[in-house]
Amino acid sequence: MSRTHRIAAVPGDGIGIEVIEAGLEVLDALAAAEPDLAFEVERFPWGSDYYLEHGVMMPDDGFARLRAFDAILFGSAGDPRVPDHLTLWGLRLAICQGMDQYANVRPTRLLPGIEGPLKGVTAAELDWVIVRENSEGEYAGAGGRVHQGFDHEVGLDVSIMTRKGVERIIRFAFELARSRPRKKLTVVTKSNAQRHAMVMWDEIAAMVQADYPDIETDKMLVDAMTTRMVLKPASLDVIVATNLHADILSDLAAALSGSLGIAPTGNLNPERDFPSMFEPIHGSAFDIMGKGIANPIGTFWSTAMLLDHLGEEAAAGRLMNAIEVVTGRGEVLTADLGGSATTAEVTEAVCAALAGSNV
Ligand code: IPM
Ligand code: MG
């Protein structure tokens, strides 16, 4: 039976534009290899250029238009000409929060052929999924500034955690841990210093844990977690953390797996009331923009997550396999991975691997 998926592509800013084009090429290659599989792609040119012209990152009806799609492939938001908090809140966070994409999933693995900075650590020992709370906490957007410019100026960013918000992300993380072979979950906290919401977070985690006796669970303070990720990577499997804690830990995780350029993300609305959004973690990287040298692997891996979410597990598996064939051969890699290949060359190599040939 033929399957057509409607994908909204929002390349955004900087290298997002280059890597999303590469991701769409890979989708084309997948569809070409499987006659029953098709993608209807629409590109939305929203981002900082759009902002400079129209005063908004996306049009008023942008949200309603995206809602009609099965999934969103997003590049990045960020431009030196526009303050970061405007680009972020005008596009990416507006979509994540508006579509209740509360579960941010960030897998980290040592792909074949890629050596991370940790000496002697094997692929079997570094295989994690960070689950990031993606709708509230430190990114709730609550706060304000008064008396700006005076020396009695006040600035507030208020972290908001709700029982519902915490319980649903902890439950999501336990379910994910259950689906993986090692069945382990580490709950990251900072309840020694943050004595209100983080204590509630711990209590809710302990309550939910009672429903998952088959999952080996432990609790780590976020500062100690950084040390454990570096010194005992094999002791970790699924990791759940607040919005900001997981933001920081996932950059560390990406670096430990060899490069920020390969790290993928899914912003999921697990109930599927809204489309979910998939994106590379790396951001807009203006310093290398337009040079054609950005690593597209973060986008390809994110695209594999998108396919998985749409129920196309076989296609997702083929794409991951093609990525791993290319990294494993080690001949066609971008500069962040020690090579000198261009975005186009890596894309061509992955498409060729998908087609079963050996370019
Ligand atoms: C990420 C990024 C974003 C975040 C930035 C671009 C605001 O670092 O997805 O991890 O902090 O959420
Ligand atoms: Mg980040």
Description:
- There is one protein chain.
- The two termini are 31 Å apart.
- The protein has a ten-stranded mixed beta sheet with strand order 2-1-3-12-11-4-5-10-8-9, with helices on both faces. Strands 6-7 form a two-stranded antiparallel sheet.
- The protein is built from eleven helices and twelve strands.
- It has helices at 16-33, 48-54, 62-67, 84-98, 163-178, 197-209, 222-231, 243-256, 297-309, 313-329, 343-354, and strands at 3-12, 37-43, 71-76, 103-109, 127-133, 137-146, 154-160, 184-189, 216-221, 238-241, 264-268, 276-280.
- By secondary structure, it is an alpha/beta fold.
- The protein has two domains: 1-109 and 263-359, Isopropylmalate Dehydrogenase (3-Layer(aba) Sandwich), CATH 3.40.718; 117-256, Isopropylmalate Dehydrogenase (3-Layer(aba) Sandwich), CATH 3.40.718.
- Helix 7 (222-231) packs parallel to helix 8, helix 9 packs antiparallel against helix 10 and helix 10 (313-329) packs across helix 11.
- The longest helix has 18 residues, at 16-33.
- Helix content is 39%, strand content 22%.
- The chain binds 3-isopropylmalic acid (IPM) and magnesium ion.
- 3-isopropylmalic acid binds at residues 88, 247, 281, 283.
Summarize the structure.
The chain is an alpha/beta fold. It is built from eleven helices and twelve strands. Helix 1 packs across helix 9 (297-309), helix 1 (16-33) packs parallel to helix 11 and helix 5 packs across helix 6.
